[in-house]
Amino acid sequence: MPLLSLFPLRVPDLTMRRLLLVSNSTLHGSGYLDHCQQQISDFFGKCSGVACRVLFVPYALHDRDGYTKTARDKFRTLGGGNTFRLLKSLYDNQVVSEIRKRVLEDGVPYMGSSAGTNVATISISTTNDMPIVYPPSFAAIGLVPFNINPHYIDPDANSRHMGETREQRITQYHEEVDTCVLGLREGCMLLVEGNKATLLGSTNARLFSRGKPRVEYNPGSDLSFLLNDAH
Amino acid sequence: MPLLSLFPLRVPDLTMRRLLLVSNSTLHGSGYLDHCQQQISDFFGKCSGVACRVLFVPYALHDRDGYTKTARDKFRTLGGGNTFRLLKSLYDNQVVSEIRKRVLEDGVPYMGSSAGTNVATISISTTNDMPIVYPPSFAAIGLVPFNINPHYIDPDANSRHMGETREQRITQYHEEVDTCVLGLREGCMLLVEGNKATLLGSTNARLFSRGKPRVEYNPGSDLSFLLNDAH
């Protein structure tokens, strides 16, 4: 009997994991998913020669049928919409653990943008969305051991608006927990292949670690260290 | 025996209610709470001649002692900071019902700005803040029968940012429930005296009602109709 069977929980082989976590679906001045079309093609092109079927999760928008049609037409893939609604529906339909299992244990590729990126991380605590519905937890699918802020935006020096900046909001999060937050500016995305993580796209990402200076990363940067729980 | 004692819940006399709900603590180009100083003075000046004591709730910021000191120094009053943290702490300290009772039944004046305004309404579902902690509910103190979006901001026609506009987020909320949302732009505030509500300040508010056109209100507008549950 193998040693592993002594343990009630199977330890997933994370080398199977394949994720493409995109900041945003539309980039200013270009069409829908244009900015990440090549990366999507590369990502799903590696489906081992079998006909590639995509499970689309339309829970984040109210009109699920319309959203699904848009997705089918435009290969919208996973994500976009309101993060609270998406996560609550994933819990209501009891698929959070199933998605985690399929992605981490069976190597099913996962792609999300915006809300779909938020729910792939540790928690939705760094979403920008309004809490329009109450999910049973802010804990998310947990495909990576850190959080992401999609649509990350730098303060506008000319703005007269006095609401908190995105950075101030992330600082408030770090007053509560020490989970790293990767701020993905519109135009960039994170590719995770097993234990390797790479920043792709046309814009920089900014990493927020509790009590440490913020660090900027260019497209092409190796961010595999973020996949280490101990980071 | 009076008829009222047949009922387990005392029906509050809402003519006692006195609220000052401010969009923001600081307005661009002016000092802290300067933009609503006169209204605050008028609001607390009506304290029936007794020495006016203010209960300050510092739960919305991490450094409660520092925040309280700032409040004492500058008369910061209730509110500001992260709405999720404020509401969770109100629940953790079991003061949600007590504040509701004191304000609605005993006529204790309530002033809040930003987060302090959010928690005074039906729910925090139209906050702009990040969900950095998980409160036991999004239901708030319920001093008024509608929701407010503080720091309401119009779309910037020159922005290249593709995240949802504030109006789009409120529309998502109205896909879930039909509670009215009053968008308080920075610089305005709502004064509630009994069953009368008046918009004060220097900027307009925008009212969002599910399935109806948005309506703009100038300072001085009578918004008492919002206090009618049936609205």
UniProtKB/TrEMBL annotation, chains A, B:
Protein species of origin: Neogobius melanostomus
Domain of life, source organism: Eukaryota
Assigned keywords, A-Z: Hydrolase, Protease, Serine protease
Similarity comment: family membership: Belongs to the peptidase S51 family.
Keyword RNA-binding: no
Pfam families the record matches: Peptidase_S51 (PF03575)
A Gene Ontology BP annotation from the UniProt entry: proteolysis
Name used for this protein in its record: Si:dkey-69o16.5
One annotated GO molecular function: serine-type peptidase activity
NCBIfam families documented for this protein: PRK05282.1 (NF003642)
UniProt entry tagged with the keyword Signal: no
Gene3D superfamilies cross-referenced by the UniProt entry: 3.40.50.880
